[in-house]
Amino acid sequence: MELKVYNINGSETGRTVVLDDSIFAIEPNDHAIYLDVKQYLANQRQGTHKSKERSEVSGSTKKLGRQKGGGGARRGDINSPLLVGGGRVFGPKPRDYRFKLNIKLKRLARRSALSYKAAENKITVVEDFTMEAPKTKKMLEIMKNLNVAEKKSLFIFSESNNFVSLSARNLQNVKVANVLQLNTYDVVNATNLIISEASLVEIARVLATNK
Question: Is 47's pLDDT higher than 90?
Fold first, then answer.
């Protein structure tokens, strides 16, 4: 696929780039995307949830009534889950939700997500740019010039771009990442991808099929 290269003013530079078909034009694997997104979201969970069980609730352990003949359940002491204020049955406990995925599957998921965006014409290639200082107003101006101001946008650079990241930090629908930070969830979650010209070479290196 051949795309035009734009500058931050939204004008064509007269140059074009050819997207690597092994990354941007494969048959997408939906299950690989599902697994990679599931892993990403699972890794975000703190897993600190906790409720008290019967043995952890503060209260008397005295048996409230006789074992049989009371006409109700044999609930024992006041900490019983059957009573208000008692412990919880099979409540949540702290746990680690992280799980591992094969690196080849993760690369396949990212190539699949990028292929979906390319097929939907949701990729814009811009020439490399930087900022001399953090300016949210300038970032908004760039987005308007590229016609992505009202859409969820993911800016991808070949390396970390601190001033651009700081300029986009206060914008709700914008995320900035370098190629090494690129993940399937961010690609799928974004409406438009704005990829710098230099980062295409880095994407081809990181997501190469022969790795």
Answer: yes
